[in-house]
Amino acid sequence: MEFDALTISRRADGTGILATSFIGDFSGQGTISSASNGISGTFTATNDEGATEYSGTFAGSFFGPAAEELGAVASGSSATGEFFTATLAGDRYPDLAAGVTLAGQTELLISQGPSVSSETGGTLLSFVSGGYNLEYDPATDSYLIYDDDLSPSVVGEELTFGGSERAPGRDTPDFDFYVITNGLEEKEFAVFDGSDAEVTLTYANFGRLITTQGNGIGGIADQHADYFGFGLVTPYHQVPRTGLATYSGSLYGHITGGTELGAEIYGSSAFGFDFAASDFIAILTVNTDNGVGGDLELGEFIFEGQDVPYGNGFFGSIDIGADEGSLFGQFYGDTAQELLAAFSIYDATNDQTYVGITGAVQD
Fold first, then answer.
1. Of 21, 18, 11, which Cα lies nearest the Cα of 152?
2. Which CATH architecture has domain 102-362?
3. Which of 59, 173, 195, 333 is the most exposed place for a label (fewest CB within 10 A)?
């Protein structure tokens, strides 16, 4: 057996400040006992974005009449004598059958995927505090979007976008729009219609939520955008472990900075995965409107990453030149036919930050 996990540590520096969080990882491998109901093995973990590394052992058991669930405990230490302890619990992830698509959904779809917010300066989010969950109800053709904040003291926001919130007058060739207005605040939700000139998505989709707070005199006091993906996530055990694959797609996002959003960005994406070597490369080509109906290319940004699949997804970063960036994605479909990836880029040449999301299909 093997496992991989993203970890978020609260109060890791001892200050007791809720907003303090450190991203790390937790992975291990072990064996299943042939003589008893037991699992055991070794693990490695990092905290504070890799600043501290721990190693140790774990042990546990299966639960349920057909071993549907498992539980385990882990303990270890760092080279400098710091300790690491964890409890693991989980249930069996069901298979995703071939031929199941978003268009064919008849039951409530609950999904959380890669997301990014301009409000946090481009901090990537997925299964962490502040990320958005999305529920799609095909019976009413409506979307419920809500915060998934890990802090029990914070009440998450819930927004429902359905027929009464549709704003077809704002629709573009690639997005369908919904609007909720509450006083000086407007929530504008745009969902990708599934196809554009570059890509047609079957198993995945993504949306954009723009929050605009008016200042009472016709201007904007604050504005930010959240991009997030959803869909039929490829189960971890169905992500390929051998072979090569390339993906091509489109990207959408914004230039960020200040109290108002900057110009929209768009462009293309290309991914190459070596599943046997557990690594990938991604190239994002970012454009914006040049003001006279054409494209202004802002740059081509190269991400690289390892440890694929990381859960059922992947992480990457920019390690070339003065540019900076990070990218988190997940696979969708029963054999990872599609992917979504949220990204944040600092463009040193233009001194600008871009946030957004890309959807791509296996070539």
1. 18
2. Beta Barrel (2.40)
3. 173
